[in-house]
Design a protein that fits this description.
The protein is of the alpha/beta class. It has helices at about 70-85, 100-110, 135-140, 150-160, 180-190, 195-200, 210-215, 235-240, 260-265, 265-275; strands at about 5, 10-15, 25-30, 50-55, 90-95, 115-120, 220-225, 250-255.
């Protein structure tokens, strides 16, 4: 696995999928979790080579000496160091889930270094967009005919009301279908560095007003893709995020959850490949 050094000397690793001649697509995972859960994004690597970053302290990237560097805003310069390492004047950038917060902040800080920006089932904290419990309940109710629904919905209600914390029980709500493939993928995507996960959104990680102001002049095309059933990144919140970019396309993938390339790889790849051109 190739590596490079972050500005503070931390050794970071990345995966390469595909060997085509097109410009690479730099991918930032959510979590923060080992980027292996992204795989080749359902076959997207057949259209563009994928450079998939392991965020510091995850996958094969080193644990930093300064744990405060796990904070989302401080990870921006890791992405910039990767761009420099790759020798690219600009990068097409994809961020998934919490990684979309990082990709968004990178675009705000280094707008001229982004060719196209794809935000997949994006987290929206960097933009100051709140997701309400009512939004999540509304989406969850779309699954009420599923056999797993009663137990999962009870757990979701408890979490929403602050009386429970059984995140494992609500896993089916993150997937378009709750079969063996989805269960295996969901398990593989869980963060295993608790400190990195806890400090990613530490105080000061997000400055929504400044980020919004910077993105008001962001000229690159942006794709925001939401899953129809995704309680983590509801389509309504993703639509609100899309309104903050001057040149944005919003797509809601039918029947998809938080990892739309798992639920319908062909549809996902077709959408993202068409956007990337």
């Amino acid at each position: 696995m190739p590596t490079f050094f972050a500005p503070d000397g931390t050794r970071l690793a990345y995966r390469v999928h595909g060997d085509g001649d097109g410009d690479p697509l730099v991918c930032v995972p959510g979590g923060p979790a080992d980027s292996r859960y992204l795989g080749d994004l359902g076959g997207l690597s057949a259209h563009r080579p994928l450079i998939v970053l392991d965020l510091r302290g995850t996958g094969r990237s080193a644990i930093p000496e300064d744990s405060s560097s796990y904070r989302c805003d401080r990870l921006v310069e890791d992405v910039e160091a990767l761009r420099t390492h790759l020798g690219l004047p600009r990068i097409d950038l994809l961020g998934h889930s919490a990684g979309a917060n990082l990709a968004t902040q990178y675009a705000a800080r280094h707008p001229k270094n982004v060719g196209r920006l794809a935000l997949i089932a994006p987290g929206t904290r960097a933009l100051g967009i709140a997701i309400t419990g009512e939004m999540r309940r509304e989406l969850a109710q779309l699954r009420r005919n599923e056999p797993w629904f009663p137990a999962a919905f009870a757990a979701l209600e408890a979490i929403t009301e602050g009386t429970g914390s059984d995140w494992e029980a609500i896993s089916p709500f993150f997937c378009g279908r709750w079969d063996a493939t989805a269960q295996q993928h969901q398990a593989a995507s869980r963060p295993d560095n608790e400190e990195a996960a806890a400090l990613f959104a530490a105080e000061g990680a997000f400055t929504p007003d400044a980020t919004r102001a910077a993105l008001a002049g962001f000229e690159a095309p942006v794709l925001l893709l939401a899953g129809e059933f995704d309680v983590n990144s509801p389509p309504r919140s993703v639509a609100e995020a899309a309104e903050l970019f001057p040149d944005a396309v919003l797509t809601v993938q039918p029947g998809a959850g938080h990892c739309p390339w798992v639920d319908d790889a062909d549809r996902f790849v077709a959408t993202v490949a068409a956007f990337l051109g």
